[in-house]
Design a protein that fits this description.
It is built from eight helices and twelve strands. It is an alpha+beta fold. The radius of gyration is 19 Å and the shape is globular.
């Protein structure tokens, strides 16, 4: 069976895990959003033409933030290239990306997509299905570029040596209003973490997600406040989760942005000893009519 034939089955598998909830509550469609989703879907064509490394990097921005399991978040095109080069060129057909949803900012210059990526691994012929979230940006008269990307359920990265600058979030040259909006968004994420510490993750996540928001949890796509509450109640028994944002960026129109942060999940082993798991996350936020922020997409992976 070809990868093209296997990808719809992978998407169906993700959909079945929603317990018959809609895959996504889709916002009003528009040509800009639709063109972004189509561009996301055609990334596999770029890999087929240019190879695994060059093709995967073709749509990455110069200051891209990349979150791969097994290592801290890295920043910059050269760091992203090191990740792909360390994984090797690979063999077999190019991966296929299938977006499941997304949205764009009011000024149509920032956007996000999320979905599944199917990899047909040779020689076994087994199918590996990863999930992803991408945040995109474009300047005037310029093409879309990915400025933040997280892989979920993907393979762990080999240990790579990165420079201090590649491990530090960039300092963007933006206008004062955009910088102030990014600071407010970072504060909103910090308040989100504080709410989880005081009230628990079930209350915090269900109160902070937008009515049409979603998050990746385990192998499922969780949609809406009620489903998120059920998921967090099941996951949170005996485990505490703390986090802190380390980076935030906002669209020039001030209505869409993302945060990147570091998390610690603390639980107990069968012997009763405390066990900590370190991770990182990418959260996409949308400004609400009342001026506050709620998240519309969230995903996390392990750092080590």
């Amino acid at each position: 069976m070809t990868l093209r034939a296997l990808l719809p089955a992978a998407v169906l598998l993700i959909g079945c895990s929603l317990h018959h909830r809609p895959a996504v509550i889709e916002p009003v469609r528009g040509p800009t959003r639709d063109s972004l989703l189509l561009l996301d879907q055609t990334r596999g064509d770029s890999v087929a033409v240019h190879g695994r490394v060059a093709g995967s990097l073709a749509l990455m921005g110069g200051e891209v933030a990349y979150l791969r399991a097994g290592i801290p978040a890295v920043y910059g095109y050269d760091a992203a290239r090191a990740l792909y080069e360390s994984a090797g060129g690979g063999s077999g057909p190019a991966p296929k990306w299938q977006p499941l949803g997304g949205g764009v900012s009011r000024d149509l210059r920032s956007g996000f997509t999320y979905g599944v990526a199917a990899h047909l691994e040779t020689p076994k012929g087994s199918l590996r299905v990863d999930r992803y979230i991408a945040f995109w940006r474009r300047a005037a008269d310029q093409p879309w570029r990915i400025v933040a990307y997280i892989e979920l359920n993907g393979q762990f990265s080999e240990e790579i040596r990165f420079s201090a600058s590649q491990l530090a979030p960039p300092v963007l040259q933006v206008t004062r209003p955009v910088a102030e909006s990014a600071l407010r968004l970072r504060v909103a994420d910090s308040l989100f973490a504080d709410l989880a510490d005081r009230m628990g993750t079930a209350d915090a996540f269900s109160a902070t997600i937008a009515s049409d928001g979603a998050m990746f949890g385990d192998s499922r796509l969780i949609v809406g406040p009620n489903a998120v509450r059920e998921f967090e109640e099941a996951q949170g028994a005996g485990t505490s989760l703390t986090w802190r944002p380390v980076y935030a960026a906002v669209a020039e129109s001030g209505d869409l942005g993302f945060t990147i942060g570091e998390s610690i999940a603390t639980g107990r082993s069968p012997s009763g000893a405390a066990v900590q798991r370190f991770g990182k996350y990418l959260t996409v936020w949308q400004r609400q009519p009342d001026g506050g922020w709620k998240f519309v997409m969230h995903g996390a992976n392990a750092t080590r």
